[in-house]
Every structure is written in C-alpha cells, then in structure tokens.
Amino acid sequence: PHLFVKGATDSILNLSDSILLNGKIEPLSAEQKEIIFQANALLASQALRVLAVSYRPLPQSMPIDRSTENH
C-alpha cells in the first residue's frame, strides 16, 4: 500500500527528499528543487496553477481504512 498526497508545489517539495526519475527513486538535490521552484514560478506568472503529487510506501502491517477511499 502507498499513501498519495497532492498539494501546492512548495509545500510538497519542502517535505520531499527524493524524486522519481526514469523509473528510479533518487535523492532530490537542492539544485533540482530550485529548478522545480523556478518552473513553478514561471507557470504561476502565466496564471497557471501547479499541483505536486507525492507518495510514500506504507508498511504492510499498517491497517488501512478503506471507508474513506474516493472521497
């Protein structure tokens, strides 16, 4: 199971320490973060809204409450 979240790019990025590139999880460098922040600012200056998506694997032993799915 995985936990997926979406939100403002700066909020998600500030909590992230890795990035999925070409199917591989790699450490997220300060330079990569800056490139993403700059791209976000450019799109925002064009009145475009950018959302970030993040995920984290959950332990197999963690109980999952499926009653809140798709809400």
Kindly report the spatial arrangement of strands forming the biggest sheet.
Answer: 1-4
Element order: H for helix, E for strand: EHEEHE
Largest sheet: 2 strands, antiparallel
Radius of gyration, in Å, reads: 15 Å
- The helix content is 25-40%
Beta-strand content:
25-35%
Number of strand segments: 4
Shape: flat
Question: N- to C-terminal separation?
Answer: 18 Å
Low-confidence segments: none
Count up the helices: 2
Structural class of the secondary structure composition? Answer: alpha+beta
Q: Can you give the mean pLDDT?
A: 91
Structure description:
About 30% of the residues lie in helices and about 30% in strands. The chain is α+β, with helices and mostly antiparallel strands. A hairpin with a 2-residue loop joins strand 2 and strand 3 (about 25). The chain is flat, with a radius of gyration of 15 Å. The two termini are about 20 Å apart. The mean pLDDT is about 90.
Features:
71 residues, alpha+beta, two-stranded antiparallel ribbon, 4 strands
Write the layout of secondary structure elements.
Layout: E1 2-8, H1 9-14, E2 18-21, E3 24-27, H2 30-45, E4 51-57
Antiparallel strand pairs: 1-4, 2-3
